[in-house]
Structures are given as C-alpha cells and as structure tokens.
Amino acid sequence: MLTFKQYVRAQSLDEACDLCQKRSNLVLGGMLWLKMEDRAVNTVIDLSDLGLGTIEPVEGGWRIGAMATLRDLELHPGLAALTGGAMAESVRHIVGVQFRNLATVGGSLYGRFGFSDVLTLFLALGAVVHLHKGGDVPLEEYVTRPYERDILTHVFLPDQPGRTAYLAQRNISTDFPVLTCAVALRPEGVRCAIGARPMKASLLTDEAGLLSGGVTPESAAAFAEFAAGRMTFGSNLRASAEYRREICKVLVRRALLACKEDV
C-alpha cells in the first residue's frame, strides 16, 4: 500500500516541478497503479488544478493534456478520425470504464510500463511529449531515457495522412496484454510498435524495404517475420518468449493488412 505524509494540489507547474525534485515526493497522476505499490513517500503532488485535462486541435495535430483520461481518448471523435478507430481499440480492454475514467495519459506515458497499450499506439503515431523543463521530446527517444524529475504536461499527436491499426493479444478480456501491436502506414513508410514483450514498447521501421512495393499478403508476411526477428521477447506468467514471437508475426501481418483494407 502507498502511504504518504502530505498531499499537495499544485497551483502552478513551477510549484509541481519544484516539489517533484525531492526523491521522497511523487506525482500522483490518476492514482491507480501507484496505490498498489508498497511504498512510503513524503509528499504526493496532484496536478488536477493545472488545466491539463484537455484534448484540443492545434496546428499540425492534436495536443493532449497529461491529465486527460483514457476514457477521454476512447470517446474523442477527433482522435477516432485521426486513427481510424485505433485509439478507442487500444484502450477498450484496459480493466473497465471506471478505471479508464481515472487513469491518465500522462501516467501511462511517464510510467513507460511494459504492458501499456497507450504507449504502443502513441509510439507508432509519432507522438511528442512535452516536459515542463525539458521541452519537446519525441516519444521514441523518451522511452529510452531514465526517469526524470520533470513534469510531463502534454502530448502532441501529428495529423498525418495514412492509416493506423491496433491489435493486442490477451489471455482474457481486461487482463494485461500478452503482446501489443500498432502499425501506422505513412507516405514516408511504416511505423510499427510492439509492446508487452513483456518489456516496454519498441519501434520498428521498414529499413529493409520489404513494403516498398506496397502492402500485399506476401509483403505483410515478410515484414511480420522481419519484425519478429528484430524484436527481443521475454517470458513471464502470461506467455513464453517463443509464444510472443509467434504472436508478433500474426499481429503485425494482420495490422498491416487491416491498414491496406482501409485504403
């Protein structure tokens, strides 16, 4: 159980950032996974008063506040149009509606959890996170960084032409995923993110040019084999590394063909 001595509703980002510099302090987010930790902290920092719960169109894409919930992502018509329904698909199996009404985008991305459906899709979409002190950082770079004592305030999703598909394998609905897969077909090429390996999501592009002639059943199968060979997989109580590698081939191939069918 998480225990703390002091609760602070920050009234500015500067205040929140100053407070989180102390190793004994912690930003709350939606307070869902954190409450399950066996940990004692000095001060917990609530960002609810900072206006970070919005999803708004900006030049070139969408700006999503860190305190926007997963349910907000699921129901937002603009994000549905941007992703062809992949946004809602990526979150609809996460526990239940009550949970998604509380879990935040910022918590999902800052935590960089291996099981994160949100991280997988946002990585494929070319998201850029904005840190209060650190500025804009591409998500594909951010996932490789160590945890920083900074406040993730917003996420930018570029509005790019192309198609997107999201698939995940679960042993049972609402459980943590065995493997996650997001594919974004763009004019400049494909972005394929694989997560729940069980490590955090990682991004692949078509460096071998397997899809240069377009997406066909044959090229999709070839890229899926390439993706499964390039990714590292591990074993845990949900699945073995070998099983995940085989599932990767299936999900990548199906996601590519789903994008092709929408064209």
UniProtKB/TrEMBL annotation:
Signal peptide: none annotated. The keyword Nucleus does not apply. It comes from the Bacteria. PROSITE patterns: FAD_PCMH. GO terms for molecular function: FAD binding; oxidoreductase activity. Keywords: FAD, Flavoprotein, Oxidoreductase. PANTHER family: XANTHINE DEHYDROGENASE SUBUNIT C-RELATED. This is FAD binding domain-containing protein.
